[in-house]
User: Fold this.
Amino acid sequence: MAEPDLGGLERPDAHQDAENVSPRSSDAPLDKPRHDWLRRVNAAFVPGPMTPLLEQAAGGLMSAFSDLGHTVQERPDEHTDILFTTAHFDRPLHWREALLFSARRRFGLSRLPTIFTLVHARPAGIEALLARLGQAVAKEQADPADYDFPGLSPQAYHVLFEQGRRGGAILALERLLQSYVKGLRILALVGEEQPDYGYLFDLVGAHPKLDGSDQQALLRDVALRTVTILSTFDVTQHLVQGEPIPPDTWRGLAAPAGMCRAARELGRRNFFTEMIRIADLVSVPAVGDAVASQYSEGCFATWEPGLSALVATVTGSARPVDKANITEDDLAVIVGVREDGLGALVRRVQGKANSAPSSEAVEMAGMDGLLPTVALGQEWGAGARVPVARSKLHGHRGVSAYDPARVEYTPLDEPYYHYPVCCGTSAQARAIRDAFSRSEALRNPDDPRQLVFTVLPGHGAMVVEKWAAGKAPLQLMWEHMDAGHLRVDSYVPQGMMRYVSGPDGMMVLREG
Assistant:
């Protein structure tokens, strides 16, 4: 099969000009490297509750879009890509007023643009809230009284506690604000009359802190980050290919049982956090029409020589999937990537649920195209050539340190650290593919390093293992974690990062 073109980011039906519309300005030496595939977008502002700071910021943000060559609309229409609005920082918005649920009806739209909400936080207010949440998530068990915020579901305290345990008080705050504004993408501007700093929040839990000392530069940065997100497209249009796999064939494979074991092993090491269910945070009707009703934490896959395919975990956006305790009904078979890069090619299994694979299916399958294959010995019961990367693990976790003698870190291209992209998109699949294609340990199968990883800022890590005789799928990963050769951490870097030599020979994470 021809290698999929994951570099072409223009949707087949896109009406916008796909040229790079953000050329370097006169301050080019101070400008951060950006992607070369940004396209023109149409932006509109629909005001909600306002403060002088929000009014000034909204005007400055629209000016930034215009200065970068994009179209600012007076009123949303069928060509609008993104709607900016405002909301209160400290109180919930009624769902009927939230653009996520009302924009299509209000403006007569056939599709929903991306919604981005601006909120104004006073320094004393956000600091007090972070202190309150910090004390709450530091407890051994969640106390519902600590999370008595207006407008939340009775179960919301558990979600905020678990999220705070994973990412600190800032992540609990992020989920609280998302519940308040009834939206996923938020710019929280902190200051009195002018923003001192800001936070950008999204679905996965990203929370980069932006310097507000130069308001024009801050808003320009927000505009470029937003355009980056809008210039990608989802790669979840999976297609079924080939005849269904017979039950007898499936029962004879090693990968399904190996995947179920790997899930339990990773679960014992707390690699996955609990799934977020929207209904556990806030009660709104028809949530499925606007956003997936739940959000799962990560995915993993392993190569099955008997099928010449990846066996991977299914998506958790359609139905709840506990990635730490999967069954064979929670697996999908990926035989390739569509030639247009819009999704994976999937083969069904007779008698199984056959749910769609996780949104990261394309990035897991696509990386093999630029890497070598290896011949398995007879100890595997097969003589076929297989991808050098046996198993892949994508989790919303960071890596605080690693042993360079046993593990390799392969960085992304620099623009991805300044302008991150979203999960399940063509841009992330390309970022993953290109990063691992440069891996010395994967390009040279004889390299003794058995694990390779990269980190997606604000998102999480992708870890790959090579083939090792006598090891189960993903076993090298959990063994390296247990031995301290790969130190997985709940904190995910939010921007520029690197690893530096530590006193014990480990490479240690440094940000900035």
